[in-house]
Design goal:
heterodimer, A: mainly alpha, abc type-2 transporter like fold, 2 domains, four-stranded mixed beta sheet, elongated, B: alpha/beta, six-stranded mixed beta sheet, 9 helices, 10 strands, 39% helix
Chain lengths: 392, 250
């Protein structure tokens, strides 16, 4: 045990002195998630909010032919400017990109309208242009709203129940709860947390195994009267310690990010208070020895530092698999799933974010199964270190 | 004292070591001499216990290396072929790490490190990180690391590789001083002059076999050669021809 702590202390301190490694382990790794996360969410927010608030800019030809319609459009956020009356001119304007859409109101509009016949308007737009398409969609909705209003008034004037004109009434019922909608974003976040942990221990896992061999310091170490289990244990312990640090930094980053990103404006409630962050820390902590043992085991088979990096870049993806699987099959937190490391952490964190209560037994099963797998991997790493081929 | 009895080791199709036997005595410097690839490193690796022999055994001060591993290993200091240090640790910390792993109290490690740094002449860089050290400085620190627990036996694999004249001289003086203290020193080399200048006893190895052993003078006389170098070449050629003979250790 003393030897294990000696190895731990040395590896911890040595890594602390490697500024480049530290930068990646404790800054880039943990803060990459919160940063990317808030950038993405703000971008989505900007787009949605901007879309709703932005006035629809339309050129209208023959405004005088339907003053009431034009008034209605202006009242509903359409920014109108005079446009050409001829269809060919309107088409040229759109093609040249000078207008996203042109509404042409022909001269006969007034007469047809007064006669109760369908009054024609022309909507000239480019359907291959996304912006133009959005403009016409909103314009079309406004036009049919205006039309429906007129129809209703006409029917009422004639003593007909306007409901007769509606054979089918579609009522949209959206069952997504605000928090439910946040699930996709949350899935991303929990992965970032696990990713940050692995990044925090990545370099140490390589440096203390493949790196030790490449540096030529391994053989003298193996010749010491120290059990291999103590060597491996100390190295994995140090790696797990950095992973826990990285986890803490990452969660602090997310707490900060959540303060600036207004998820509620996307109709999502996902509050990450410092207390929730503590719960997350407790949920994820057992993943540290597991990740550390997995990385140490894989890196122990690498012949060089570089080869270790190649192997471990694959390991970084391992925790995504259960999470991706969970989101495809929309898995909920059932107890048997708590047996699967990384998935159980993801599901538990998702629960907390949704504001659902945690069951103590779920948390226990998650921690126990994760730690059991960690112990198995530590054992395998010790075995790998007992092989003669470990000398390289 | 290091006793090696009919040690054999095979790597795949290659029989690296065949029934190697010799004894390195206390108060003597024993040189394992042989061309590259003769099986010197493999033999030494079995002596300090990182390789398990297929057959035969090694005893350190009467203790079996493969079995009573920890007790036997605590009695050897090892300078392997690769003498990598931890670049982000200072020379002092590198030595102290090994002291702690040997289970020594911190105060004793501190005192011992100071002594070794003085003897090996690297006090000036003792508190510097070893990242930029010259090969000579590295070997000195690695040697201090190997000696931190004051071992009775010292095993060195090609210790003079990459050392300049001054460093080689320091090393020789150190080994002689350790011999004078009654310690057992076993080292390997493919450099003739080094062995001739230093060793009380040589073991010549070729193709994994002991081809000749004894005092340098005995080996030379046995072959009727003018000097040790000629005897060495003669032994190797004979070994290549008839598969090796062994001059008994009297």
């Amino acid at each position: 045990m003393r030897a294990l702590l000696t190895v731990f202390g040395k590896e911890f301190r040595e890594n602390l002195r490697d500024r480049r490694t530290l930068w990646s382990a404790l800054l880039f790794g943990p803060l990459f998630g919160p940063l990317l996360f808030s950038l993405m969410v703000s971008k989505i927010l900007d787009q949605n909010v901007a879309q709703a608030d932005k006035p629809v800019k339309v050129a209208i030809g023959g405004e005088d032919h339907a003053p009431n319609l034009v008034e209605f459009l202006k009242a509903h956020g359409v920014e109108a400017r005079p446009g050409p009356v001829a269809e060919a001119d309107a088409a040229a304007l759109v093609r040249a990109g000078k207008a996203q859409a042109v509404l042409v109101i022909p001269a006969q509009f007034g007469a047809r309208f007064a006669a109760g016949e369908p009054a024609p308007v022309q909507l000239v737009a480019d359907s291959t242009d996304a912006e133009s398409r959005k403009t016409t969609e909103r314009l079309r909705a406004l036009l049919s709203g205006y039309g429906a209003g007129i129809v209703q008034a006409r029917l009422q004037v004639r003593g007909v129940d306007p409901r007769l004109a509606m054979a089918v009434a579609v009522d949209d019922v959206d069952v997504a709860t605000p928090a439910g909608r946040a699930v996709l974003v949350i899935g991303m976040m929990t992965y970032f947390v696990l990713f940050a942990m692995l990044m925090g221990g990545l370099y140490l896992a390589i440096d203390t195994t493949a790196g030790e061999r490449e540096r030529g310091s391994l053989e003298a170490l193996l010749a010491l009267p120290v059990p291999r289990a103590a060597l491996v244990g100390g190295k994995i312990f140090a790696t797990a310690a950095y992973m826990s640090l990285s986890l803490a930094i990452s969660l602090a980053g997310f707490v900060t990010a959540f303060r600036f990103v207004h998820l509620d404006r996307l109709g999502m409630t996902a509050n990450l208070s410092p207390f929730t962050a503590l719960e997350f820390f407790a949920i994820c902590l057992p993943f540290a020895p597991l990740g550390a043992a997995l990385m140490a085991l894989v890196a122990s088979f690498a012949k060089s530092y570089r080869e270790g990096q190649t192997y471990l870049s694959g390991v970084l993806l391992v925790p995504t698999l259960p999470i991706a699987f969970a989101s495809i099959y929309a898995l909920k937190a059932h107890r048997p799933l708590m047996l699967i490391p990384s998935l159980s952490q993801h599901l538990l964190m998702t629960r907390v974010l949704r504001g659902e209560p945690l069951e103590a037994l779920d948390v226990l099963v998650s921690a126990a199964s994760t730690l059991a797998l960690a112990a198995l991997l530590v054992g395998l790493t010790v075995r790998a270190w007992r092989r003669e081929r470990m000398l390289g | 004292m290091i006793e090696v009895e009919s040690l054999s080791k095979r790597f795949g199709a290659i029989q690296a070591v065949r029934e190697v036997a010799f004894t390195a005595r206390d108060g003597e410097i024993t040189g394992l001499l042989g061309p590259n690839g003769a099986g010197k490193s493999s033999t030494l690796r079995m002596v300090y216990g990182v390789l398990a022999p297929d057959a035969g055994r090694v005893r350190i001060d009467g203790m079996e290396v493969h079995g009573e591993t920890a007790a036997a290993r605590a009695r050897i200091g090892v300078l392997p072929h690769a003498t990598g240090l931890y670049g982000n640790l200072t020379a002092r910390e590198n030595v102290a790490y090994y002291g702690a792993l040997h289970g020594l109290p911190a105060a004793r490690v501190r005192a011992r490190t100071e002594t070794l740094a003085r003897t090996l002449e690297f006090q000036d860089v003792l508190d510097r990180r070893t990242k930029g050290f010259s090969q000579g400085q590295r070997i000195k620190v690695a040697l201090a690391r190997a000696l931190v627990h004051d071992p009775q036996n010292l095993v060195l694999d090609e210790p003079t590789n990459g050392l300049d004249v001054m460093a080689v001289r320091t090393l020789r003086e150190l080994l002689r001083a350790l011999r004078a203290e009654g310690r057992c020193i076993l080292f390997s080399s493919h450099v003739m002059q080094e062995v001739a200048a230093l060793c009380d006893r040589v073991v010549i190895i070729g193709a994994g076999r002991v081809l000749a052993a004894g005092t340098p003078e005995a080996v030379r006389a046995e072959r009727g050669a003018a000097n040790l170098e000629e005897a060495f070449l003669d032994v190797l050629q004979a070994g290549g021809r008839d598969g090796g003979t062994s001059v008994g250790e009297e």
